[in-house]
Amino acid sequence: MRFRTPGRLTRRALLAVFLLVVSAGSWFGYRVYSDTSCGDGVHEESSPRECVGVTDGSVSFDPALDQVFARVKAENDRVTDSGAPYATIALMVPMDVAGPTAGVDRKHVLWEVQGAYFAQYRANHRANGQAPAIRLVLANPGLGGGRWRPVADQLAEMAASSEHRLRAVFGFDISLPTTQRSIAYLTNEKRIPVVGGALTADDIANTPRHPHAYEGLVRVNPSNTDQAAALAHADRGVGVRQTVLVEDARNDDNYITSLRKVFEARTEGASLAPEQFRSPPDISAEGTTSNDFRQIVANICESPAKEIYFAGRPVQLRQFLNELGKRGCRARPYTVITGPAANALPLDGALEWDTLRHGVTLEFTASSHPDAWTGPNTPATGGSAEAFRTLKELTNRQVTGSVGPVDLGDSRAIITYDSAWTAIEGIRDEAVHGHAVPSTDEVRNAWLRLHGAHRVEGASGWICLDNQGNPYDKAVAVVRLDPVTRTDRFVTLSWPTGHAPNGSCAAPRAPAT
Fold first, then answer.
1. Any idea which fold 37-221+375-474 has?
2. What is the mean pLDDT of each run of 10 residues along the chain (513 residues)?
3. Residue 88 CB neighbour total at 10 angstroms
4. pTM summary value
5. Which of 6, 358, 359, 362 has the most C-beta neighbours closer than 10 Å?
6. Closest C-alpha to 89, from 70, 111, 117
């Protein structure tokens, strides 16, 4: 067989096909590496389909966030157009929501973004002209933080950029392995200062034994250990023999494992061994744990227990409370004690409120509460009504513009505001000592001085960082779920050490290890 040399028309056709293939490949590469279908700085992911990345407020991740994102965008534009030196801080929390708890999660994200914006607004309008100005960006690592790595790399590029000047990442609202990995990557590998927000897990922190586990991490929320100690100091006079622990046996959730550890110590010597269940890995999934709780409640009814310590996530806590309401021993009252994740329950439509009207009391710790510093018995140290009122005034729409419905009762807005304000204090502390916009290393050094007279006056209480970057003897609000108002009712302030800090707010020397 003889092959003919392609004619001019055939060669043109082949060239067209070649160009089409190259063009398609280039378009595919552009979609993978430079996808802007979600908006500037944000790209689309599939399985699950979501928009992740970093935005200055120009891209909203959910309609519920549109108003507050618009306010952030307007403030950022004002800052960059002013020509004055500015530094950027980034709120990093999952802003995509899905599943049975989407309604609750959506409100939590809204309140966290609001808290961050209030701190930015205060820094730029209520700080007597202190510099640098503050630019706020919003980083979404996807559902459960699953897309944290590319977002962390994006933030690292912004830290190295003379345009963005990113100097701290804050937020981190849920104690999961993805959160732990993203914080370790940002601090240890990218050397970016990080301020934890609603985090409470003991193992996402520096300690005297491991002071460099996360280089440059500080936290503003007491750990589960500190919160459990504060609960113990708010003791109701029930002996340990009358306690019982109900615990999730899963080991892949930092919040659960650390809460379980401190509650196991608290209930050592109880008449019953811990009652265990195993929840699904997805913290929003119902699973079949209600079946387990029916059996667990029957065992508790046969015991002398009066106080039930619960180490688990909100979905399982709600299931347990609902089963406790159906108990055969309804003549016996119970107090259920748990950690701060319980603040999601008032928003859970499946909670059977009658349980809390018939001999069951739910008490838990909270990052703060609007009544904590404004009541008649406010402590003289450890926090102040003035610091809380500063935040409260910023929630006025006439001051900041509409940001959507604000609710300080949940404490998400309060603790996120405090984590942002801590980042801002660190940046401005170093600006006094050197350049108008300090380096990330200089901001990390500033964490060493945020205590004593230079403590952070948080809306949740004094933030006095120890040498490991943890808040020393931070105020803990003990709250009770009220079935009448269906809200958290403030009970008391308590302290990990058993008493409010002294006026200097200085941590004692850590014991040698």
1. Rossmann fold (3.40.50)
2. 42 44 35 56 84 96 95 97 96 86 86 97 92 97 94 98 97 91 98 96 93 96 90 79 96 91 91 95 90 96 95 96 94 93 90 95 93 88 95 90 91 96 94 79 94 94 95 94 94 92 79 57
3. 28
4. 0.87
5. 362
6. 117
